[in-house]
Design a protein that fits this description.
single chain; TIM Barrel; 12% strand; 12 helices; globular; 8 strands; eight-stranded parallel barrel; alpha/beta
């Protein structure tokens, strides 16, 4: 497998599932994909759950015809999207996704959440055991005990847990506080941080005068606390000015400086340019400490409905 870049690009919003508000057409996303590939950001994170195949289909259209070694695809098994009683649910989901994306393999494959996770991790292990061209196997939205359990299940089948993906940002560091990144580092597991920008809440784009799109899922979570987010974004802005970048680059640089691989949602060419800039910034220990001090002072709880506190 190609080396992992510093940043993965997320195609969650490409699913047009109502989470972000608005609707994205394939033709408007094509320049985003092309710019990313040009800039060396070739790791794409998607899931069937993102619009029930919509995100995957859009991405499939863009990678079609490209050399297989020019990109990496990260996809997921979402338990809620299958018939849990079917003995072939895991195989059926993986093979359906591969067919949908016109691929012969995934580069990274995840158990998307902890719903009946031990069962599905076992099924995943059985599916991949003994196969060639194995993907990096990961689990998402797992706490430390669940991560260790998944690792044991995979190990019993001669497989290794290679990745963990959790919601991790300046204003949601519960994974860090429970020791997950440290465990990953000690065991050669790549920690992927998603929602580093809190779906735009830490981008400086939104404030009390400019709330998120009404009716979107993210608006329900962040619009009520925009006054506190203004304080966080002000602190981010001071560091952004120092480095000559936009506010949105600083949370991403923070996540990289913390040793994680952030997944950044991209819907505009400018988002790709921002990601490239963020990858070039290394924050100092004092800057990291100051940002975390401000974040902690706000007392925000941005754990979303599909998640839990990592303890």
């Amino acid at each position: 497998m190609k080396n992992l870049p510093k940043i993965a690009l997320g195609a969650w919003a490409w699913g047009n599932d109502g989470t972000f508000g608005g609707s994205l057409a394939s033709e408007t996303l094509r320049p985003v994909f092309d710019k990313a590939m040009e800039k060396g950001l070739y790791l794409w994170d998607t899931a069937y759950a993102y619009g029930m195949g919509t995100s995957e289909k859009v991405l499939a259209g863009f990678i079609k015809g490209l050399p297989r070694d020019s990109y990496l695809i990260s996809d997921k098994f979402t338990p809620q999207c299958v018939d849990g009683a079917s003995p072939t649910a895991m195989r059926d989901m993986i093979e359906m996704q591969l067919e949908l994306m016109e691929l012969d393999r995934f580069d990274i494959y995840w158990i998307h959440n902890v719903w009946d996770a031990p069962k599905w991790t076992e099924e995943l292990a059985k599916y991949f055991e003994g196969r060639e061209n194995l993907p990096l196997i990961g689990v998402s939205n797992h706490n430390l005990a669940e991560i260790k359990q998944a690792s044991e299940i995979l190990r019993a089948h001669g497989l290794k847990l290679g990745a963990v993906q959790n919601h991790y940002s300046l204003i949601n560091r519960s994974s860090e506080q429970s020791g997950i990144p440290d465990y990953c580092k000690e065991n050669g597991i790549t920690f992927f941080s998603y929602m580093v920008l809190e779906q735009g809440a830490l981008s400086g784009r939104y404030d009390t005068a400019h709330p998120m799109p009404a009716g979107s899922a993210r608006a329900e979570s962040y619009n009520p606390v925009l006054d506190k987010l203004e304080i966080m974004n002000s602190a981010l802005g001071r560091i952004a000015d120092k480095y000559g970048v936009g506010i949105a680059q600083v949370p991403v640089a923070w996540a990289i400086t913390k040793g994680t691989l952030p997944i950044i949602g991209v819907t505009k060419v400018s988002h790709v340019d921002d990601a490239v800039k963020a990858a070039g910034i290394t924050l100092t220990a004092d800057e990291v400490a100051e940002l975390e001090r401000v974040a902690d002072s706000l007392g925000l709880n941005v754990i979303r409905f599909w998640e839990k506190e990592m303890k």
